[in-house]
Amino acid sequence: MLRTTKPEVAIAILYQGDRFLLQLRDDIPTIAWPGHWAFFGGHLEPGEDPDAAVYRELEEEIGYIAPQLSLFERVEDETVVRHVYHGPLVVPVEQLVLTEGLDLGLWSVDDIHQGQRFSSRAREERPLGPPHRQILLSFLEHRRIEQAI
Predict the structure, then answer these.
(1) Is residue 134 a contact partner of residue 141, using CB atoms and an 8 Å limit?
(2) Is 3 a domain residue?
(3) Which of the pair, 32 or 84, is modelled with greater confidence?
(4) Which of 52, 123, 140, 146 has the greatest number of beta carbons closer than 10 A?
(5) Residue pair 77/43 in contact by the 8 Å Cβ criterion
(6) CA atoms within 13 A on the CB side of 5
(7) Residue 46 sits in a domain of what CATH number?
(8) Domain that holds residue 114
């Protein structure tokens, strides 16, 4: 595995059918993408493998024990390395326990293309973080191509 001096995160694209679970991040100015919709996941602990980190983060943030996640891609920009996993959300959203963030919700493909969505907890429209939107659009294109084959 490639190692870098940049912070590394493991994040998950969770889906039910054609809808995608996202988290509305807290309005804390010191975190990445405050007040934006984003994926669940987080930083790797020292010595932790991304494969283990993504499962740990999901359990910590929403109490979800994913049955199976697969690596979709590794995305590196000037500030961070994102290990992007994907897998099904096999429980109703109502069973998830949000312990981090302001809100959570299933997004439609139209929501993703629009790039923003209303949060009932924040009581306003909030944007999807640009890198998260880019990753989702890439994932949707990948799935479209796979289904056409």
Answers:
(1) no
(2) no
(3) 84
(4) 140
(5) no
(6) 0
(7) 3.90.79.10
(8) 8-148
Q: What integer pLDDT is reported at residue 145 of this predicted model?
A: 73
H or E element in which residue 51 lies = helix 50-62
pLDDT, one tens digit per residue, over 77-130 is 999 999 999 999 999 999 999 999 999 999 999 999 999 999 999 999 999 999
In a domain, 1, yes or no: no
Strands 40-43 and 8-16: antiparallel
Asked if residues 127 and 37 have their Cβ atoms less than 8 Å apart, the reply is yes
pLDDT at 8 over 60: yes
Three-state DSSP class for residue 61: helix
- Block residue for tokens 């429980």: 91
Token pair listed for 51: 């494969």
